[in-house]
UniProtKB/TrEMBL annotation:
PANTHER family: NXPE FAMILY MEMBER (PTHR16165), NXPE FAMILY MEMBER 3 (PTHR16165:SF5). SUPFAM superfamilies: E set domains, SGNH hydrolase. InterPro entries: Ig-like_fold (IPR013783), Ig_E-set (IPR014756), SGNH_hydro_sf (IPR036514). This is SGNH/GDSL hydrolase family protein. It comes from Porites evermanni.
Length: 487
């Protein structure tokens, strides 16, 4: 007997069958493939799902905090808990390595020193994939069941090595500082005296999984065009509304940033096009912003494209913050920002204000205070620039760069206690999500720096090359915006 198939005779019938979950084929002797089954379509659908998970990663701060809700206050630490994860006993429980051009993943099982497989989350596993044909930054997803999913998109086939490190356990990576932490510092709210937090020698673990410094794996070549799936999702927003200067995700190949989606001209191309100089470019932030500013200067971009460039260094007087209650600290930051925005240099609609409030704040503040700060900044910007007829600068949020806490020495120094990958990533996600919702353009540099093969120069700052592509994206965006603005 052959294979009998329930045939769908029109489009309406197809929709009804799918809606009600009706099986539209059934198999008798001789049937091997269900009607309408297409493995390639399944691959594309899976790629779309993983792509949207990656896009959501940059703004999904709630998933990060979920395993640690109610557990991050400083007095909630469990220093001697039998449930602390042991990096040596933990292991990779499953590999799903796909051909180049498709998402791969593996799963980490956290295990205690006594060999118990944990069934809840809160560990901070950090993964680098920097050795191989490309250098990339995977996303680590805490499933809150003791298992951590590591997802990454490899476009270049070949042999790779991953560094898999346990930084913290039991939510210590997201741990908030004490309420009076900021006023206990001696310089820029840092350099806290050792011992004021009590014993923290075991907080920062910094141990590789299974005692292995690297874990090797092989990504096979794809028989299809590796760009095929990218082209399918290129126009997809994944339900996320965000005015990104560029998508932000990609990898480094031979020292050059290669975005997964690239639709902006290079600086060289911009130089060949007529470009009316903008009135002023103001870069506001900390020392990371200063490095970015100086790179623009050294490349001649300021001189060529702007009438004036301003470095607005966010520095609050030491005496001021040491005599200011923590709850009022945000007011000082808003006042400091307002002073620069009041400048006559930024009173033109052909001026540009690029700002960030990142690394220092993840060291200084608890997460709730930081959320309030970001929300307050957005309200302040809206109130200032609500009138469309007023001259106002182009305002751009530049995300924070990644850090490498592992380069701080000694590793459990008191004043770097809250300087963690996990806190910075959480702060980054919240701020990016808020800026996206507010309609403020976002220059995304976190994945670009997190995957930079040479890492940081110290533990915070990068060489100019790490953000060179972001500089090009910024210039291209400004160029487009100015063309549409009245003179």
């Amino acid at each position: 007997m052959g294979c009998r198939v329930l045939r769908i005779i029109n489009q309406r019938s197809i929709k009804k069958a799918i809606f009600f979950g009706i099986v539209i084929t059934y198999t008798l002797t001789g049937c091997k493939t269900p009607f309408f089954e297409n493995p390639e379509h399944d691959d594309i659908r899976h790629f779309q799902q993983q792509w949207c998970i990656m896009q959501g990663w940059r703004v999904d701060w709630e998933t990060v905090v979920k395993p640690c809700v109610g557990k991050v206050a400083w007095d909630e630490r469990k220093v001697n808990s039998e449930w602390r994860t042991d990096a040596y006993n933990s292991f990779i429980k499953k590999w799903e390595i796909q051909p180049a051009g498709q998402f791969s993943r593996f799963f980490i099982q956290s295990v205690t020193k006594e060999g118990i497989h944990k069934n809840f989350g809160g560990d901070a596993w950090r993964v680098y994939i920097r050795e191989g044909p490309a250098s990339l930054a995977p996303q680590v997803l805490d499933h809150d069941d003791g298992v951590y999913e590591v997802v990454f998109l490899v476009m270049e086939p070949g042999n790779y090595s991953a560094q898999i490190t346990l930084d913290f356990t039991l939510c210590d990576g997201l741990r908030d500082p004490p309420e009076d932490w900021i006023i206990q510092g001696t310089n820029q709210a840092k350099h806290h005296k050792d011992g004021i937090l009590g014993y923290i020698g075991d907080d920062y673990i910094l141990e590789p999984i299974g005692g292995q410094s690297v874990v090797a794996f092989y990504v096979p070549e794809n028989t299809h065009n590796t760009q095929k799936y990218i082209s399918v999702v290129k126009a997809s927003t994944c339900g996320i509304t965000c005015n990104l200067l560029q998508n932000g995700f990609g990898r480094w190949v031979n020292g050059v940033w290669q975005p997964f989606i690239d639709n902006s001209p290079t600086t060289a191309e911009a130089l060949d096009n007529p470009f009316t100089k903008a009135d002023a470019l103001c870069i506001y932030g900390d020392s990371i912003a200063r490095y970015f500013f100086r790179s623009l200067i050294s490349r001649g971009i300021c001189e060529r494209f702007f009438k004036k460039c301003i470095e607005a260094y966010m520095k609050i007087n030491q005496q001021t913050y040491q005599t200011t209650p923590t709850n009022d600290f945000n007011k000082l930051v808003l006042q400091h920002m307002s002073e620069f925005l009041d400048s006559s240099d930024l009173s033109s609609n052909h001026s540009v204000f690029v700002f960030n409030l990142g690394v220092h704040f993840s060291i200084w503040l608890n997460f709730t205070t930081y959320k309030d700060l970001i929300d307050s900044v957005i309200r302040m910007l809206r109130s200032r620039f609500a009138d469309e007829h007023n001259n106002k600068p182009i305002v751009i949020w530049k995300t924070t760069t990644s850090i490498e806490k592992e380069k701080t020495h000694p590793k459990n120094l008191t004043h770097w206690r809250f300087h963690t990958h996990q806190r910075l990533e959480l702060f980054h996600k919240y701020a990016t999500n808020a800026m996206c919702k507010a309609g403020i353009p976002v220059l995304e540099v976190y994945p670009m720096t997190a995957s930079y093969p040479n890492g940081t120069l110290d533990h915070v700052h990068y060489s100019a090359n790490a953000q060179r592509a972001a500089e090009d994206q910024l210039l291209s965006f400004i160029h487009k915006k100015l063309k549409n603005k009245p003179t």
